[in-house]
Design a protein that fits this description.
Radius of gyration of chain A: 23 Å
Structural class of chain A: mainly alpha
Radius of gyration of chain B: 20 Å
Shape of chain B: globular
Largest interface: A-B, 14 and 14 residues
Order of helices and strands of chain B: HEHHEHEHHHHHEHHEHE
Oligomer: heterodimer
Shape of chain A: globular
Number of helices of chain B: 12
Largest sheet of chain B: 6 strands, parallel
Number of strands of chain A: 0
Number of domains of chain B: 2
Strand content of chain B: 5-15%
Helix content of chain A: 55-70%
Largest sheet of chain A: none
Number of strands of chain B: 6
Chain lengths: ~475, ~280
């Protein structure tokens, strides 16, 4: 069920009304959320529901066992058992073909023609997300940050809460589980704020991302047919496509959760207004970056274990993050490029120089800030080319196509309407960059007719200007 | 909660009213309203086989076409609902439209309750109707006044294999009679609106004619033609010279055939005369 579909709209309305009807009974409310979440997931493919339930039960059970174990080695054994099974599933469904194909290719280099056993494996939607939810829970119990819950329904709601089930944000048990266990209050302000965030998410997805996708698909599918300037435009549009797509999804997820009285972790904080790559990674897919930081980077020693080990840790975290996105060398290259851009900042101790919001309290940035933002955006666009390409060779061809004489000609494609939308979108995001999402405060003090007119304008823009429906990019991860 | 529900209901109602208002105004503003307008409906044959520029040049009328590749009978009904009373209309009588599977119909025109109801009465399922609604949630411009015919080539371009046509005519599609009924309803609606109707039957390639004649439900197709011809007082024929290839593929003329046909149709069209059905052949 896609967030931007009529079926989700009907599903959400029904869930919302039933949910708040059960306001006085927390257990029933949570049970309803669980049923709704399983229905939401089963709508795509009910067979994989069993995998989700199994994964939920596994972490619930190992969480209790870790807590009950009396010695550190016993706790560790349970932790490893849980990680092995979780990562085993993830590895099988997501990376089986990648390893088999690469192993076969490697053998071929040594002259061995191996007839590898391939399977027709379907990647269960959201497996990377719910596996990481469960793993964070087990880690936190192992590290003594939380005590395991004994209520299976509450735990299942934490893992499979439908707004974040298939594409995040990747929640932490320390943050979401207490909300599941406590009664939620309906407040008018929160509900309206949730709807505003959903509206903005839909705009980002359907107007920005889906319209950009049309141009991006053309340039990336046939790079040889386009001039350097057109290819560059395609790469820039992909940066907006993936941002609109994923942050739009996150906005809808956060808004939906807020309608139901939950606060989810923020996932995006205007990443394209970052002044360096370190800041970009503090603002892009925050829930995943912080997950890797807390559960991979810090346990490896972080940046406090000598220069060489720090470099190693940085490469590990970025490459694993890239590999998490998909079983392809392009994602690994994307991670490595980001690591290369990030390393100098870390080694020169400049990775935390831009902690505050760009041009905070001012309307316009300084010239230096503007240049930093544009350069950082340029670096991310370069890395996105690898992310979007089908293979490393494809990405190299694309870059070669950009770096040609035709880079200085007029682009062959000039989607005027889309350029206007992008311009207005960037202005709105810039104005709202100090808020949780761009239109969080926009028009709140305006008279109601004017504020409603703004909503109607956004709704009608979505309605009349949406691009051909594309699946959310992050569903495939 | 009460305040939230009250405001959300009010807002939704406002959105719905504005949506339908905008939809209605869009259709009204995009409907061409010239005195000498001729409104055209048909599927890809009408779109490809008649050159609007030639018709505009060689007649005293101005032609506006809502012909679409794969147009369905829902589109035809919407067309009939949309054209003004007493309008001049040129419609295609197409047996391909009635043989084509329902799910292959484009049905891409506008939301219309009467059209949906007519389809519902003729055994369209809820699922089929909801797909049509989905196609037309956003209004489209119904009429164009420019088109492009296929280039003249000496050989056929078979974009779809012949076996596909053979399969389509191998068994009787269950929707044939329903579609014939809707066709009849459409023409009745045009009559009810006192429209000046002209009809046209486009030619198909001999290979396709042979497949059609060999199908088990060919008598039903003949009966369809007979039923349709009852709506027309006069019959006329255009014979397209076929000493050179006139077809792009099995169902469409190329520029050679289309230009000839357009010139001849332009010469024959006169909406002051009783309803005329033109058979184009070769």
């Amino acid at each position: 069920m896609l967030f931007n579909s009529f079926s989700f709209f009907v599903f959400l309305c029904i869930t919302f009304f039933l949910y708040w009807r059960l306001n006085r009974n927390l257990a029933q409310q949570n049970f309803l959320l669980l049923i709704a979440s399983y229905f939401f997931y089963g709508w795509w493919n009910y067979k994989f529901l069993f995998l989700l339930i199994f994964s939920t039960f596994l972490d619930y059970f190992t969480g209790i066992k870790i807590s009950e174990a009396l010695t550190r080695p016993a706790k560790k054994r349970w932790l490893f058992a849980s990680l092995l099974i979780n990562l085993g599933f993830l590895g099988f469904f997501k990376y089986y073909h990648f390893f088999v194909e690469n192993f076969a290719a490697l053998l071929l280099r040594f002259g061995v023609h191996a007839d590898m056993w391939t399977l027709n494996i379907i990647l269960p939607v959201g497996i990377s997300f719910y596996t990481f939810h469960g793993m964070s829970y087990v880690f936190d119990i192992y590290n003594g940050k939380i005590k395991p819950t004994r209520n299976f329904v509450d735990y299942s709601v934490f893992v499979s809460f439908f707004p974040l089930l298939v594409a995040g944000p990747i929640e932490r048990a320390t943050h979401l589980l207490p909300q599941v266990e406590k009664p939620r209050e309906f407040t008018y302000e929160k509900a309206v704020d949730g709807l505003r965030q959903i509206l903005w998410g839909l705009f980002k997805k359907m107007v920005i991302a889906d319209n950009c996708a049309a141009v991006v698909n053309m340039t990336f599918n046939h790079p040889s047919a386009y001039s350097g300037s057109t290819l560059l435009m395609g790469a820039v549009f992909f940066a907006f496509q993936i941002y609109g797509d994923f942050s739009g999804y996150s906005d809808i997820a956060l808004g939906t959760a807020r309608l139901l009285g939950f606060e989810l972790l923020r996932n995006f904080a205007f990443p394209y207004f970052s002044r360096d790559i370190a800041e970009f990674w503090r603002r892009w897919h925050i829930s995943l970056s912080s997950w890797f930081r807390d559960y991979v980077y810090y346990p490896l020693g972080g940046s406090r274990c000598g220069t060489l080990k720090t470099v190693r840790n940085i490469f590990i975290i970025f490459i694993v993050s890239g590999f998490w996105h998909g079983a392809n060398w392009t994602f690994i290259a994307w991670g490595a490029i980001n690591a290369i851009c990030f390393l100098p900042l870390l080694l020169l101790n400049k990775n935390r120089q831009n902690l505050e919001i760009v041009a905070q309290g001012r309307l316009f940035p300084t010239f230096r800030e503007l240049i930093s933002v544009v350069l950082t955006f340029g670096l991310t666009v370069f890395a996105w080319i690898f992310f979007r390409s089908n293979s490393i060779a494809h990405a190299c061809n694309y870059i070669k196509g950009i770096c040609s004489r035709s880079l200085f000609t007029m682009p062959q494609l000039l989607p005027a309407r889309l350029l206007i939308f992008l311009f207005l979108f960037l202005i709105t995001e810039w104005i709202g960059r100090e808020q949780q999402y761009a239109i969080a405060r926009l028009g709140l003090r305006w008279p109601k007719p004017l504020r409603w007119s703004m909503y109607i304008l956004i709704i009608f823009t979505i309605f009349y200007c949406f691009g051909a429906q594309q699946q959310f990019i992050y569903f495939q991860f | 909660m009460k305040r939230f529900l009250k405001e959300i209901s009010l807002f939704s109602a406002l959105i719905l009213v504005l949506y339908f208002l905008f939809y209605f105004l869009f259709l009204q503003f995009t409907l061409p309203r010239r005195n000498n307008a001729v409104y055209i409906w048909g599927d890809s044959q009408m779109y490809q086989d008649l050159d609007l520029a030639s018709l505009n040049k060689n007649t005293r009328y101005h032609f506006y076409s809502s012909a679409l590749h794969g147009a369905g009978l829902y589109d035809f009904f919407v067309f009939c609902e949309s054209v003004p009373e007493n309008a001049n209309v040129l419609v295609e009588i197409s047996q391909h439209t009635i043989v084509r599977r329902k799910d292959m119909d484009r049905n891409y025109s506008a939301l219309n309750l009467h059209a949906l109801y007519t389809l519902f009465k003729n055994n369209y399922s809820f699922n089929e109707l909801s797909k049509i609604v989905n196609n037309n949630v956003v209004p489209h411009t119904l009429f164009i006044d420019k088109n492009e015919v296929y280039a003249a080539k000496d050989t056929l371009t078979l974009t779809e294999p012949i076996s596909l046509f053979e399969a389509a005519y191998a068994t009787r599609p269950p929707c044939v009679q329903d579609k014939i009924n809707i066709y009849v309803s459409c023409l009745q609606l045009l009559n009810y609106k006192h429209c000046h109707i002209a009809g046209i039957v486009f030619p198909s390639h001999p290979i396709l004619n042979k497949i059609e004649q060999g199908s088990s439900f060919y008598p039903e197709l003949l009966s369809f033609q007979a039923q349709m011809s009852r709506f027309f007082m006069q019959k006329d024929t255009v014979i397209i010279p076929s000493n050179k290839n006139i077809f792009e593929d099995l169902t469409h003329l190329n520029a050679r055939g289309a230009n000839y046909l357009s010139t001849e149709v332009a010469a024959k069209l006169n909406f002051s005369n009783p309803a005329t059905l033109i058979y184009a052949t070769y």
